[in-house]
Amino acid sequence: MTPDQIKGIQESFAKVAPISDEAAALFYGRLFEIAPSVAPLFRGDMREQGRKLMATLAIVVNGLSNLETILPAASALAKRHVAYGVTAGDYGPVGEALLWTLERGLGAQWTAELAAAWAAAYGVLSEFMIDEAYGRTAAAE
Predict the structure, then answer these.
(1) Cβ-Cβ contacts under 8 Å for 74 (sequence gap 6 or more)
(2) pLDDT digit string (tens) for 8-28?
(3) Which has the closest alpha carbon to 32: 52, 17, 46, 48?
(4) How far is it between the farthest Cα atoms of the chain?
(5) Which among 45, 7, 10 has a CA at the least distance from the CA of 25?
(6) Do 24 and 50 contact (CB within 8 A), yes or no?
(7) Cβ burial 120-133 (10 Å sphere, 16+ → b, else e)
(8) Tell me, what CATH number does 50's domain have?
């Protein structure tokens, strides 16, 4: 990721943060629509789950300039997700739902360049998390 991509991600997330409850609801609604098999993995209060999602995204987005600072937490999160029943294949729909949500949240401010930046960031992080949780062969699939 380039410094300009990181800046764009951070600036766009700052615009979505004020509507974080709505964004989280959009995200999970879309995720369960495109990947209904993951819905049973979520058993608790979805509003609280949405708050955790947005808080985690804020940490990741703010740490993109210094990726090494967030990788240990991303590794631990990936390993916890294995225990919840998350598979390496679940990361694809999550990324799709995230980009869809950001597009809806940002409206006309969502550009092809911004979409590419977010996709790159998600790709780097999800590949790292899959590798940490399942090993290199799963990350390559």
Answers:
(1) 60, 125, 128, 129, 132
(2) 999 999 999 999 999 999 999
(3) 46
(4) 39
(5) 45
(6) yes
(7) ebbeebbebbbbbb
(8) 1.10.490.10
Decide if 91 contacts 126 (C-beta within 8 A).
Answer: yes
Angle at alpha carbon of residue 108, lines to 102 and 110, rounded to 5°: 40
Q: Which of 16, 74, 8 is nearest to 50 (CA)?
A: 16
Long-range contacts of the stretch 98-104 (C-beta < 8 A, 24+): 98/27, 98/122, 100/26, 100/30, 101/23, 101/26, 101/27, 101/30, 102/12, 102/16, 102/23, 104/26
As for how many domains the chain has, the answer is: 1
Residues contacting 103, CB < 8 A, separation 6+: 110, 115
Contact 135, 26 (CB under 8 A): no
Contacts of residue 40, defined as CB under 8 A and 6 or more positions apart, other chains included, come to: none
Domain that holds residue 67: 3-140
Query: Model confidence over 74-132: pLDDT tens digits?
Result: 999 999 999 999 999 999 999 999 999 999 999 999 999 999 999 999 999 999 999 99
